[in-house]
Protein 1
Amino acid sequence: MSSTPRVRALTAALLKRSGLWRDADARARRYARGRTDDAADALRLADDYRLLAHDLARARSLIPGTRTREFLEDAYGHAHATLHQGAWRMGSTLQRLLREQIPESVRWLKPYILWTSVIFVLSVCAGFALVHRFPELIALFASPDLIQSVEQGKLWTDGLLNVVPSSVLSAQILANNISVTLVAYCAGILFGLGTVYIVGLNGLMLGAIFAFTGQHRLAGGLFNFVVAHGCVELSVMCLSGAAGAALGEALIRPGPDGRIESFRAAALRTGPVLIACALLLVGAGLLEGFVSPDPRFSLFTRVVLGVGYWLVMLALLSGRLFRARASLAGAG
Amino acid sequence: MNEVAPGHVIDSATGIDVSLPLAGPGARSYAFIADWHIRIVLALAWYVVGALLYNGRPSLSPPLTNVPQWFGLIVAPALGIYFLYHYVVELAMRGSTPGKRMAGVRIVARDGSGPSAGALLLRNVFRVVDSLPLFYGVGLVTVVVTRDNVRLGDMAAGTLLVYERGRAGVPLASDHPGALDAPGTEILAELLERWPVLGAEARVHLARQFWLRYCGDTATLGDDDAEWHERLQQLVQGSA
């Protein structure tokens, strides 16, 4: 070996501290995995961090291509991660999400929600007008089975429960709705065009099918089927579309930090809304599986359920749903 | 020379940069395939055990009519295990999964800290796009072309996949600065680590070569591997 006696002596002195590194690394890993909450140990983490930084700097200089340096890099990285890790409490994380992050995210998305809703409503009107004026165009929006069923004077939703049980239907609808919501959101990555396409297409389909069923005097029946779950389901479509549009705009008009950083910031700001959408779709799926196809529920009950659930959605999105409970608990 | 290892470099309060070695497409694929096998086995196991218990006989067939219990107790949980595996396991294991552990990688935030719950959920939401059109095509392409080897989900969530390095690689301290330098200490540590899995002849051969290089003549020393082990241990403890 060609190292000078000084370097060899320094290296040997450094290597003598390997026991301290092992202890420091073990402590950091214990904390990272939540396996200890010893206060004295926690205080030692900061000392460990400084010790590892000091010795790593020496190892980078004295023994750069060795396993010792690799070990120190890893131990230092772990200590850094452990020291900078925020508290990991699912309860408080969930509370913060429901009370602060979702309402904040919705407030930020307000202009996008407005414009996505306008696009959706215009698409519904366009789909309605198109099929009302040119009935043969329904073939573009609906399956042959659906068209045949309506032409025979029967809604495809009639007797749905004879084919599939409510629980199965709910789960199928829920899975489908969540995947549509996620796709509408993620499609924003195509500079917002994918989101506009999905929101527009869903609006066109809804309008077209209402026009088509109206021509066969079945629009009332379809409204009867849709009203309980549709209020929230369609709102969620607009919400996820708005979040996707925000992603798109972040890519089209990035800030001074660049396109990727802008995309990341938009994704993190819109993430809570997506979680709210998934939660709301669980309720909508249950309504669509258990209430909508069941003829025992009157139109009045359906409207009350649909509008009531929509109001719950507004309370959740504005933060009032959980804030009110917290203040009541505080008063008690 | 005070070079930082290649990878993602983060400033730290101590003034010494933290260097995180980034995992590439190979490690990512390995972790994903391992996790995929785990979740498919778990989902199938749930289905098989549930079906056997439900049917009360050795049959996996679903009932002929639509029975909500069959769907709710057997099919839906199995699908839940398969589709929610990454969401749930990454949250529970704070940015790791069994597959990632096997591949020696973990998820971290871009500042080197552990990822938040929101970031973990978001990076999994984007699997919808990353998995397109087939076999994570979009994800693999973005991993290959991006500087930090990240897929779209990582870009959105501000996370990175990094290697766990050298956990077994800590050298043993030597009190003999004159006898062993740093590489010598490491070679000795590695030799002793591998000692139990080596054959007797290989043990003696490697120990003799090591001794010749760092300690001197071996002509007078015998061929008993237990003696060699003792000798090397003494060298580690500084009493040789």
Protein 2
Amino acid sequence: MIGLFSYHFDWSVLWRHPYGDLLIQGILTTFHLSFIAWVIAMGLGITMGVFRVMPFWLVRFIGVAFVQVFRNIPFLVQLFFWYFAAPLFLPTSAQKWLHEHLTHYSYWAGVVGLGIYTASRVAEHIRSGLLSIPQDQFRAAYSTGLTTLQTYRYVIVPYAFRIVLPPFTTEFLTCFKNSALTMTIGVMETTYTAYYIDSFTFHGLETTTAASLVYLSISLCIVIFMSFIEKRMLIPGMIVRGK
Amino acid sequence: MDLDVIIRNFEFIIGGLALTFQLALLTVVGGLFMGIVLAMARLSSRPWIYYPATLYIHFFRGLPLILVIFWLYFLFPVVIGRPMGAFSSAIISFIVFEAAYFAEIMRAGMQSVARGQALAAYSSGLTSYQTTYYVLLPQAFRNMVPSLINQTVIIFQDTSLAYVIGLREFLRRVNLVDAREVRSIELYLFAALVYFIICSTGSLISHRLEKKRVGRLFN
């Protein structure tokens, strides 16, 4: 612990020009990267989750294969695949076009990679959410004379939505944290910026500490906000989040 | 497709897999040990034990692992006064991080045992120690085994992050071979396949045990 006292802390690397702007840029990148990825994850994840409970075996197989493949391969390997290997599948002319026009290829590879990886986790929650709906809900809805579409629109979807809301909060936070991995393919988000500033100033301890606080405070805000929403959305008489 | 590149560098890449296994094993052992301590602390009724453990768990669960790796990588030289090797630095980051997840699994496992079990044990005259070790822990352990195996699979995947501080584990070596041979498609598909086989085996075991457990509960 002696080293801590003799270490010369210089917190000004957090706001000094040009590092302050870099850090702000990094935090913003973390934000929009994880948000766009989340939109992809929701679209793809809900589709695949619904696929898994469909009555056709081929559709179900696609859902299962998607989840198994993307859950059992480390996210880092997937990122490298999208960044290094995926463009090579394209014809040479397309590769050339990509190289000239998509200057932020690493960013988009990160967004797509994170989106698909998160989708595989979202699909699992959708599936278990749909399976946890009691069959009586369907029977009751049909017996009151609702059509299939109405049953889903007014009974099943509102019900399922509330069941999957808490796991979705967790998944969004995971997605938000996983966005840090895109630094390995060169996306300048919060973690990479913290590391990058170290290479100029040798004050990585301050920058990574600040980055940790950024992640923690944003996670905390989301948790507080979502627990407020979840409370409002609670189905009366049902324990959604086990205490 | 040129699968020759994998055969040519097979020995080098598989050597990395050995390191990956080593990392995962040490992390699981260390993480379990530290996780038990944290879980006990979190179940304690004394606030000065309960709150620090809770804070620790929430702190590390709120951070990306990659940031924890960097943070400790920068912190260690300052604290101990000399740089630390990549291997020990990575191991310590993994253990410190995964212990928080293990602790939550174990706490949930302990709390999943029905309250009546403890009451019944006490009323049949067992001491608090006997109740914990003969009644509660065996049941709790069975409940948490599937989750623990699942977490082990996640740890196995997470070891690939040691890449960022230059540790030559499996993925790093694949990356190095790719830098030399420029065969991205073959190499990354190979890496994906190896991880997939190992991880889906783990997931399958966890799934089987979970099914068995649920089956026993309801039959």
